Here is the input.
Amino acid sequence: MFRYPSLEDCPLDEDEDAFQALGEEDEDIDQFNDDTFGAGAVDDDWQEAHERLAELEDKAGSSREPDGPVGNDGDVLGDPEDALAERLTRLVIDNELEDPAIMQAVHTRDPPQPGGLNSSIWDSSAMLRRIRGPLLTQEMPSVSVLDYALPQRPPQARDEERDPSERALPRRSSSPIIGSPPVRAVPIGTPPKQAAIPNFNQQILCPKPVHIRATMQQRYPAPYGERMSPNQLCNVPNSSLLGHPFPHSVSPVLTHLQRAQLLGGAQAGRMSPSQFARVSGLVGSPLPSVNPKLLQGRVGQMMSPAGGFRAFFGAPPAPPPSQLPHPPGPGSHLQNLRPQPQMFRPDTTHLHPQHRRLLHQRQQQNRNQHRSLNGSGGDRGGHRSNHQEQIRKDPYANLMLQREKDWVSKIQMMQLQSTDPYLDDYYYQNYFQKLEKLAAAEEVHGDGPKKERTKLITPQVAKLEHTYKPVQFEGSLGKLTVSSVNNPRKMIDAVVTSRSEDDETKEKQVRDKRRQTLVTIEKTYSLLLDVEDYERRYLLSLEGERPALMGERKQKICDMYDNLRGKAPGQDRPSDDHFMQIMCIRKGKRLVARILPFLAPEQAADVLMATARNLPFLIKKDAQDEFGLSLLYLVLSRGEELQSSDTNTELMQDNQWTELMLMATRELLRIPQGALAKPVSIPSNLISLFSRYVDQQKLNLLETKLHLVRGIR
Amino acid sequence: MNYMPGTASLIQDIDKKHLVLLRDGRTLIGYLRSIDQFANLVLHQTVERIHVGKKYGDIPRGIFVVRGENVVLLGEIVSKESDTPLQQVSIEEILEEQRVEQQAKQESEKLKVQALKERGLSVPRADTLDEY
Here is the structure.
């Protein structure tokens, strides 16, 4: 704003009075508004400002080596920028704090410092690259593409554009959560933009003074030992399962929000002190009860994907998957991990030989307890040569760094976290149980080579209660209706109206009845699944709960039975109608078959009798159905067994059985050959069964029809 | 399977030659250099291969970045190029063949639609459906 030393200097002098009035007003305004017009305001004489800047340029220009004619000449824009750039590069946080995706670009001016082995070198692959450069030329003739392509870009420009953007990242993750899922400043897909390196690391790697370091110290008040990445927090209980439950472990019980915030904060590259307070607050909570089944197999699998993330937090270096239980956490208790009996060596060919060698040295320093790994040095040599060969043939290999691979697999592992693996991942768990049983059986039987089966340990997260409370603001009347993912608004008021009986036609009644049967089957199925699950829950539950579980189970079994037979039966169960309806449906038959083992003997007998009573009817229906046929055959064979063993003479005396058999044979004969379905298995004593009741001719017919004669299948 | 046994992961596939089938029907062959959690792929020295009958032609494309949702399937190529009963032809030729094939398809499609229309039936247009 232009300020004339006095009003008399104004060019337009015509109305002096008005101007003087203005001047008085100005003084008034001056008194009232210091910030705008008074001492607080900057004297905005652009000419003076320009001169000041020009002085700066001259200083900067003289300090640098003259670049030529362009140097100090009139190019006003170019020089201040360069000076600024220089200053910025000194100020900038070191190259390690970069996104693995963009880190390759920087070819820093720092001299490579390969000496600092005890620092976390792998936190920065840029650092690695610095090391790689000189060492590479010594060792390997062929060079990877990375060393060619990237250092030619002007690093200054990069630093400039990077630094302000990093500073400008908003702290969205600490905003109040109103009911929506927490907002992330940086989407979860991006690898860490900036790693939080502890101070000692920087002192070793970057000796230049950095103003920003001071502020970083303020930002990370928690001592190094207490800082844990969310992943470590999840890891830690798993590692504790290796036989070292320690009292003051960090529990994985972060609330959903906290974890998301931690992640969000982590993504943005900074952790606010409030988040750290929360994290450290969790340190004291007790360890939740852990699933003993997680003890099986390799925990190292879980450790490795977290490597990249740990590096991000500046914790002890990311262990490559080649090293098995490498203690990730900062606490010393975690270092007492004992290696599993079955060691497993993953494919390490993706590691650069330098990287691997340095890592190896590092492991040897850290792990004096893990003797078994030291013996594997020979193997490592073999891998290295293999890798050298690879890199000779494919100069573009390993563009994706180990850290990035760890990053991706860490994300994949996070998706596998679940509170109840048997609920979320039932088939996988069952499959692996079967496999392990097979393996155990094999081991028992033969002395075959022990195949190392690596099992994926999915971390089990404690179940968190999410009770949604609608947000409340103080001082407002009533509650807000905020609709979000977790709390959707009710759109439709659906009311169930039951129909009156008169209106229905016959067809509809039939249809409804069938539907009701289907519903009954479904309900009974749910009960059945629960009952089958009780055994597993029994094993997992505590002593006091077990009787209650048993009671529940019994109750459910009774319910199932009632469902099958029809509620509120008459004295004698006059009609098997309900049951028959169920048996007509294939799913119902399977249901009955699955329920039978659970029923009490009388109930089971009851069910079987009902089946037997209506067998002819069922046969007719089932002839097309292989499952039904199998069931039928089984029943018949069972009857045959009873007959032949002669234990149950009542059966013989009962004419019904004979009638039944006759009817069965009649039906079977009647059905044309082609239409007869092939059952799952045919019991072998059916021939003898039929031979009791039919003559030779029919017997032959039956035999051919049912492929009962051996050899015809 | 070393990274995560029991799961499907692309990490072990890195730096290997792959064939990738995209949702729009294109076939890409290249070295898989980088992935991410969405199965976005970076293919190096990519070649788009067009198949018509027993012939195929390769169009070199360079570096491809494929968004994960567009991938139908991908698999590692282990065998050598010579192990195939197909015959490689030049690009122009294969493009010509492809054009001819497309034309023939369109014509038969038109006839079909015509026939259906005569019978009073209609099939929704393919471009409103998600093909492949």
